[in-house]
Amino acid sequence: MTLHHPTHRTPEVAVVYGTRPEAIKMAPVVHALQAQGAVRPRVIVTGQHRHMLDPVNQLFGIAPEHDLDLFQPGASLDQIVAGALSGVGRIMREHDVRAVLVQGDTSTAFAGALAGYHAKVPVVHVEAGLRTGNLYSPFPEEGNRRLVSAITALHCAPTSVAAAQLHGEGIAPESVVTTGNTVIDALIEAAGRARPTGDAVVDAAMESGRPIVVATAHRRESWDGGIGAIGSALGQVARSRPDVLVVVPVHLNPRVRELLLPPLAGLDNVRILEPLSYGPFAHLLSRARVVVTDSGGIQEEAPALDVPVLVTRDTTERPEAIATGAAELVGTDPRRIVDSLDRLLRDEVHHQSMATAGSPFGDGKASIRVAAAVANLLGLGGRLPEFTGDVEAAVQMRAEPSVARADADVRTGA
C-alpha cells in the first residue's frame, strides 16, 4: 500500500508512545527518521509512565513536541485509553500528519493506532506480529496488539517468526516488513556507556565481578500469587548462595511492591533499587550472570548481551530466544525457578550454552529499516533488505506451541 501526497514541504508522521519500553524502542526510530530526512517525526508522548518515561527521552535526546501528561496513580485502562485517544486525535486534527507510528502492545499504542484510523491516515506498527495465543496473557497486551494489527497499514515485524504469524492471520505480505527489533539498536548505544547505578554495593559488585542475578517482575497476570512466588524463589536462592548478589530494580506499582518485596526482606545479599534509568540498567544487565524476568523487553535485550534469561511467565510472545536456547520459560513455580537459577549459577557448561546462544532479535539496524519502510509507504523511497536473523528453530517451534509454554504442572494456581 503506497500513498502519494503532493506537497512542497517535508511530510510529518506522528510518533506516539507513553511508557518506558516504548520510549526505548522508539528513540532509535525517531533518530533514523530524522537522519533519513524523507519525513519529519512529530513526537507525541502520552505520559502513561511519567517518572519512568522522561529519563529515557533525556538519555536519547528526544524532545517531544506534545506531552499529554496523562499519568494518574491508579488510573484504569479505560481512563488511559480514553485520554490518549482524545489527545492524540486532537493533535492529528491540528497538524497535517501523513502517518502514525505506534510501538508494541500498550494501551497508548492501541489508542494511538485507533486515533490514526479515525483520522484515515495509515498506521505503522513497530514490533508487529507478537502473539502468545492467549487473549488474557499477557493482559491487556495480547488484546492490544491484535487490535492494532487489524487497523495497521505497515507491519514492522521484528523477526521472521513474527512476520510468519502475520501472514498466517491473512495480512498481505506486501504490508509486512521484517526489520529486527529496535530495542537492540537502543541497547547497543546505551550498554557501551559505563553508568553507575548509584548503589555502592551493586556498583562494587559490577567492578569486582561478583556473580549478579538481576530480577524484575511486574505483569498484571502474575498479581494473583505469581509475583509473590517469584520473590519467594529469589529469597531462597539468596539464602543458599551468599556469594551471589540479587539485584531487584522494583517497579513503581505499589501492588507489585507489596507482593514481591516481603520474601526478600532482611537479606544482606539482596539489593532493592528504585527503577533505574535505561543507561545504568543496560550497564547492570551487561554485567549480570543471569536475569530473572517477566519483561518482554528484557527477553530481547539480555541475549544480545550474552546473559541467560529465566522467563517467569507461562507463555511468551517471544519464542525465538527459547528456541535458540538463550532463554528458558520457567513459569512462576518457586521450585522450578530455584532449580533453574541454581543450575545457571553452579553449572558453567550449562551457563555458557545459554550465554553463547546468540540474539535472534536484531542486528542494530532495525530503525533504519523502519524509516525506509515508512518513506516507501508514503511514496518517498524504497525499502531496504529485510532482517534475516537465524530463527529457523523458532519457526519450527511455531508448529509446536507447547515449546513456548511453561510446563502445565509448574503453573502457580493451575
UniProtKB/TrEMBL annotation:
CDD domains: GTB_UDP-GlcNAc_2-Epimerase (cd03786). Its EC number is 5.1.3.14. It comes from the Bacteria. Residues 32-374 form the UDP-N-acetylglucosamine 2-epimerase domain. Keywords: Isomerase. One of its GO terms (molecular function) is UDP-N-acetylglucosamine 2-epimerase activity. The keyword Plastid does not apply. The keyword Isomerase applies. Gene3D superfamilies: Glycogen Phosphorylase B. It holds the Pfam family Epimerase_2. NCBIfam families: wecB. PANTHER family: UDP-N-ACETYLGLUCOSAMINE 2-EPIMERASE. Belongs to the UDP-N-acetylglucosamine 2-epimerase family. This is UDP-N-acetylglucosamine 2-epimerase (non-hydrolyzing).
